Amino acid sequence: MHEMSIAQGILDIVLKTAAEHNAVKISCIKLLIGQMTQVEPESLKFGFAALAANTIADGAVVDITIIPLVGKCNSCGQQFTVERYSFLCPLCHSANILVVSGRELAVDYLEVE
Ligand SMILES: [Zn+2]
């Protein structure tokens, strides 16, 4: 399961960060997830909760913000939201598209005690 390995990676990051700040408990984790990662937020929260049991992140609130998939046309410079993975410029129909956002998978911030 895709989300389980991502949840493990996130848990590793937050536990390491919390340890660096001598935190005893992680209460809230804010995540930025790009649409292109195709992560299912509920599955990720579920996986994280299961993995975080018996760590200082046990019971932490996981807040997920989905970052939309935005492309920029390399031919005409048009920036647009990519719908249904159609990587074609709506203006000039070029397929030469740069992904501007939507690939994020990051911890935005942590609330610790
Ligand atoms: Zn274009």
UniProtKB/TrEMBL annotation:
GO molecular function: nickel cation binding; zinc ion binding
Residues noted as binding Zn(2+) in the record, renumbered to the chain: C73, C76, C89, C92
GO biological process, one term: protein maturation
Record's keyword annotation contains Metal-binding: yes
InterPro entries recorded: HypA/HybF
UniProt entry keywords in alphabetical sequence: Metal-binding, Nickel, Zinc
Binding site residues for Ni(2+): H2
Cross-referenced Pfam families: HypA
Keyword Transferase: no
Function: Involved in the maturation of [NiFe] hydrogenases. Required for nickel insertion into the metal center of the hydrogenase.
Recorded family membership: Belongs to the HypA/HybF family.
Name of this protein: Hydrogenase maturation factor HypA
Organism whose genome encodes this protein: Pelosinus fermentans B4
Gene: hypA
